[in-house]
Amino acid sequence: MIKVKNISKTFDDTPVLEGISTIFDKGKTNLIIGQSGSGKTVFLKCLLGLIKTDKGHIEFENKVFDSMSAKERSILRQEIGMVFQGSALFDSMTVEQNIMFPMQMLTNSEENEVRDRANQVIKRVNLVNANEKFPDEISGGMKKRVAIARAIVMNPKYLFCDEPNSGLDPKTAILIDNLIQEITKEYDITTVINTHDMNSVMEIGEKIVFLKNGVKAWEGTKKDIFNTDNAAVSSFVYSSDLFKKVREMYLKN
Amino acid sequence: MKFLANIGKYFLMLQSVFGKFTKWKILKQLILKDIDVLIIGSLGIVSFISFFVGGVVAIQTALNLENPLLPKNLIGFATRQSVILEFAPTFISIIMAGKVGSYITSSIGTMRVTEQIDALEVMGINTFNYLIFPKIIALSLYPLVICTSMFLGIFGGYIGCVYGGFSSSGEFIEGIQMDLIPFHVTYAFIKTAFFSFILATVPSFHGYFMTGGALEVGKASTISFVWTSVVIILLNYLITQLLLT
Question: How far from the centroid of its chain's Cα atoms is residue A161's Cα?
């Protein structure tokens, strides 16, 4: 579980995040949604400790991140998996090497153990015949699968995903969403996903935090979204005719 | 103010480079890869430039020795002095700032814009050590490149001079042995050691701290070349003042 308490962040006198508090539960897919420029990525980077907050704090299993010792932070880092928007695979490494990399760097496991574990997760994310390929030789969907495999190879407690289905076709996007949700349940981890894809919200949004101009404007579940009278979240989620009709049908039934 | 802040940031970066070390097994592979790219990969262009510039230096010197009273062995002497004192250590380093420096900036910069550095940081890896330390170690072999440049520069001078009919082989060889001060060679290698550190760290700084996209990677490479050259030239002046005057 991750607790966010009243965090704020300012860049060059421009507030990007203001007083955000929320809780991301274990075993759930938690979504951060909002328009481009609403502060989602900065929020995610604050959660990861890549950006230092100006005010407030973040707790991982009731331990405040800022007051952790270097050793505790190092251990925490090993418990975090991250899927970046552009996958962030290492260009000079093959798919298998990319997935083996965290274990090689952070554990003292033997080469065979590392390879076995990497092949386990490769199977788990359904990557077929890609071990020896380089990132520029595989499709966008496969890159996301490699990124997910690399993120879970260390058996993380927390999984963070920044726009995991951006640039993917709708079918592949849903497959990736479902894969993340399955992994969340299977490994019983706290997953936080940053997205503006409404399909993801409807598909896997167990908890949704809506940001507007750096402020938490709403939070709830995907069911709550149908009944909300919050104008900001309604205008964002139901900006397309399709979703407006889906909502009407849901409310009728 | 930004300039001073960047100088401070550069030294803080150096401190972090020697902070938490990457596993030796991984570091060894990175060092070998960087030796291959930065040192072995530069030998071709350095050899080519050194040979022909050495030849041109000898020919230019010969053409300027109009007084018949001046001995012909001065051509070999002047070629040796030019190549050892300035051409090989300083001007080859400027060329390397273009070749190696822009490679370092663009490779680290691309890792920055594609979030590969963020991915390393999330894993808890000291990215300064992982990315920059292997380059510093690889470039510690840079004096070998300069040694090759010195040899080929003088050899190019010999070929240009002897086969151009400006002096005999004996006269040229006598010139390159004449009044040799061994400390000049030491001075050249002291300079080279400093330049190798600059070649590894200044371009890394520009790549690591760049922001933006692909276009900015190109801009960062250009800025990196300019600043690496400026630092090399200033350091060259400073070391020469300290060691030769």
Answer: 2
